[in-house]
Amino acid sequence: MSVRVRRVYDPPERRDGARVLVDRLWPRGLAKAAARVDEWPKALTPSTELRRWYHAGEGSYEEFAGRYEAELADGEAAEALDRLRELARAGDVTLLTASKTPERSHAAVLARLLEA
What we know:
Layout: E1 3-7, E2 18-21, H1 32-35, H2 48-55, H3 61-71, H4 75-90, E3 93-97, H5 106-115
Parallel strand pairs: 1-3, 2-3
């Protein structure tokens, strides 16, 4: 099993495995056919409040990651995370995001949780 984080705008690669879009909104200017997304679990995305807080620069990435992990511990988000874990156990998974810095995004937090 391998978990990768990539920008959704990057062309699909053979080694991607299951391609999972982990953003709440569909990426601008990207045709669905070109993205080749296998799953789009919107319940895995950070809350609107948390996204706004983080993008406003009010806290560190580490604090964002901690708050996001807390959101993933309950309800629909926890169920979606369990489903993603099952997918990762079955084979390679690529988490896709439109973030310009995927290594400091919620996708990186998800990848770390899946690899743990």
